[in-house]
Every structure is written in C-alpha cells, then in structure tokens.
Amino acid sequence: MKKEILEKIKKDLLERKSQIENELAGFAKKDEHIKDNYRSEFPDYGDKEDENAGEIAEYTDNLSIEFSLETTLRDINKALEKIEKGKYGKCNYCGNEIPEERLLARPASSSCVECKEKLSSQ
User: Fold this and answer.
1) Closest Cα to residue 93, out of 62, 117, 77, 69?
2) How far apart are CA 106 and CA 95, in angstroms?
3) Taking a C-beta distance cutoff of 8 angstroms, is the pair 98, 90 a contact?
4) Rounded CA gap, 87 and 106, in Å?
5) Phi and psi for 28 in degrees, rounded to 5?
6) Which residue, among 94, 76, 62, has the nearest Cα to 15 in the 3D structure?
7) Are strands 38-40 and 28-30 parallel, antiparallel or unpaired?
8) CA–CA separation, 34 vs 115, rounded Å?
9) What is residue 90's DSSP assignment?
10) Ordered alpha helix ranges (H), the chain
11) Given a cut of 70, is residue 35 above it in pLDDT?
C-alpha cells in the first residue's frame, strides 16, 4: 500500500476515534478498568412518574448507542494497532490484501469483500 494512502487512512481513523470518544463523553463515563469501555450515566430528571419514564427511555437508548460506538471504537483501535505493527490491510480470514478502495471506504475493515460475504451468508 502506498504510504500516502496509509497516512490518509490513519488520519481518518484518528479523526473518527476522536469523534466517537467525544460522542460517548456526552452521556457516558470511561471505564478506567476496561479499555474502550464506557458506562452510560442514568439521567436524573426528577421524581415524577413521567420524568422517571423519560429517564428509563433515555438510558435504554444510550445503552444501545454506547454498545454500537464502543464496537466501532474497538475496530478503529485494532486497525490503528495493525498500522503501527505494519500488518494493516490484510484479511483476517484468508490473509489476502484488502483492496485499497475498500479500506478507503471503510478504514476499520478487517476482511476482504469475499470473506465478508461468506461470513454474512452463514
């Protein structure tokens, strides 16, 4: 892979990582004991029944969003680690090179399109 493309991908991954961490910080606290793990905070609107229902609804939504963002963050960190180790761009399943077009579109990809399709169809 060309050095310029790898640098662009790394820059994109770092920007996305920062965005995700900022988004998570808006409703969750970072878990000091587990890497890339956050804990949603339970909102406190008051003691009335409708306020309690709102708190529960928001907390439930935040848990779902937190899970999705944490998963993406882990994928990004794995990709960044591979870049640092010089192992970025190889499919985890077949070992072949992942096409640059795929990596530019989805920098955290860990599989080629063929393997991803095989895994998705199972």
Assistant:
1) 117
2) 18
3) yes
4) 16
5) -140, 155
6) 76
7) antiparallel
8) 30
9) B
10) 3-25, 49-85, 100-105, 113-121
11) no
Query: Helix 49-85 crosses helix 3-25 at what angle (to 10 degrees)?
Result: 160
Three-class DSSP category at 122: coil
- Residue identified by tokens 């990596």 is 103
Q: What is the pLDDT of residues 36-89, one digit of tens each?
A: 667 776 666 667 766 667 777 877 888 889 999 999 999 999 999 999 999 999
Q: Say yes or no to pLDDT of 122 above 80.
A: no
Radius of gyration of the chain from its Cα atoms, rounded to whole angstroms = 18
Can you tell me which residue has the tokens 């900022």? 22
Give residue limits of the domains in the chain. 3-88
Q: Is the CB of residue 21 less than 8 Å from the CB of residue 77?
A: no
Is 106 strand, coil or helix? Answer: coil
